[in-house]
Structure formats: structure tokens, C-alpha cells
Design a protein that fits this description.
The protein is α/β, with parallel strands linked by helices. Helices cover 32% and strands 18% of the residues. This is Sulfurtransferase.
Length: 188
């Protein structure tokens, strides 16, 4: 029994280590994402994967190529445990990313960088999902657009320590209507 428990612990820690390597392999800093996407000929697609309503309240960078939500808000479904609206995966996410690449003369071998609010709930999972769908160079922005929140001090809970907004990169309060995901406009 003791040997089985030790074997399970070893397997579990190995899987966690592999997951950490995979996350670090996929991650780029906000500054790296900005530099990689510079210039009209860059073979990179930088995608904001947040729900458009979130962007409307948190901010946007026109440096992204477009907004394609990975998880969308179900405004009719409430999650009692998380005290928020339920989220569901955009069923057309991979197809919309592929269309956006094709519109730029790129294919699934190009680098696709996804960015969410903090990098964890949608950034990394969207990059992993794209990899699983054959986009072999999918990456994500570590700490996302807004960054992580402070754990202590006067500004505890505020997202002011890292991420795109806190890296001195360009951003603003209003989304670009030509880049934001809209139901009244064919995507992408």
C-alpha cells in the first residue's frame, strides 16, 4: 500500500511538473508579445480572448489584431458557487482564429498569442486549446491584460503589479469597433 501511495505521489508530481513546463513553454511576457507583433508583416496574430463586455469596462489595446472570445458570458445563467454569470467556450473559437490567420495570409503554423485579463483562466487554456486543434505555435500573454492582484497592503486586491496595462504598453479605455467581437458583424 505504501509503495502504491508513493508511486501515485511521484506520478502526480511529475504531471504537475510537466504542466508547469508546458505553461512556461507557452507563455510570453506582455513586452515580448508587443515586440513579436510589431510591424504589418509580422507572422503573428495577437488575439484578445476576453468577452467584449469585459473589455468595455476594463480597457483595450489597439495593438491586438482582434478580439475573439474564448469563454463567453451566458447572461441568462448564474453560477451560484462562483457568484457570477456562467461562462461557456466559444464553439467557433478555433475556426475564427484560423479565419483571422487566413485573412492575413497566414496559416496554422504562424504564431498565435492569446491574451485575457490575468493569463490564467482564458489565456493559457485558450493557447493550450489551440495547440490541441493543430495551431502548433499558440502562446499566451503571462499575466494577461490587467495582471495579477496584490495580495497585501493598502492596494490589496487591485491589479496594479504586472500585465499589459502595468508594463508601459499602449492601451486605452475604449475598444476599437473594427477589432472588437460583435454580433452585428461577421467574425473575424
Amino acid at each position: 500500500m505504501k509503495k502504491r501511495l508513493m508511486a501515485l505521489a511521484l506520478i502526480s508530481s511529475s504531471l504537475m511538473f510537466c504542466g508547469a513546463l508546458r505553461a512556461s513553454e507557452l507563455g510570453v511576457t506582455p513586452v515580448q508579445a508587443y515586440e513579436m507583433n510589431k510591424g504589418p508583416q509580422a507572422p503573428v496574430l495577437l488575439v484578445d480572448v476576453r468577452d467584449p463586455v469585459e473589455i468595455m469596462f476594463v480597457g483595450f489595446t489597439d495593438e491586438v489584431d482582434l478580439n475573439i472570445p474564448f469563454l463567453m458570458v451566458d447572461r441568462q445563467g448564474w453560477d451560484e458557487k462562483k457568484n457570477r454569470f456562467r461562462l461557456y467556450r466559444n464553439p467557433d473559437f478555433a475556426a475564427q482564429v484560423e479565419q483571422a490567420l487566413q485573412a492575413r495570409g497566414l496559416d496554422k503554423t504562424a504564431t498565435v498569442i492569446t491574451m485575457c485579463r490575468s493569463g490564467s483562466e482564458r489565456g493559457l487554456p485558450s493557447a493550450q486549446y489551440l495547440r490541441d486543434q493543430g495551431f502548433k505555435n499558440a502562446r499566451y500573454v503571462i499575466n494577461g491584460f490587467q495582471g495579477g492582484s496584490l495580495k497585501a497592503g493598502e492596494h490589496k486586491g487591485m491589479r496594479i503589479k504586472n500585465g499589459w496595462q502595468n508594463s508601459g504598453l499602449p492601451w486605452g479605455a475604449k475598444p476599437n469597433p473594427d477589432k472588437i467581437y460583435r454580433a452585428d458583424k461577421r467574425q473575424p
